[in-house]
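Exercise 7.
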Amino acid sequence: MNNYCIGCGHLMRPEVYSQYIVTLRDGSTYKVRAVNEFHARNLVVYGVNGKGAVAGYMNEQGEPVGEIKVHAANIASVKEE
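Solution. The predicted structure, written as tokens, is:
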């Protein structure tokens, strides 16, 4: 089940989201709303599209689909706030 309406972008179930702090190796931080740590990491790596969803993912071969904003190796930690 998609958590967003495909047509208007309305968030169906906001209760499934939490705030996460993603810290990079250089000490900079990103605060994102995500459903889990994996989702939070992907929001930082790929950024978000116009509706607030992850702008890209990995394909079946493990290659990125979409532009990488932050390389995953630069993420030091992901913690729920």
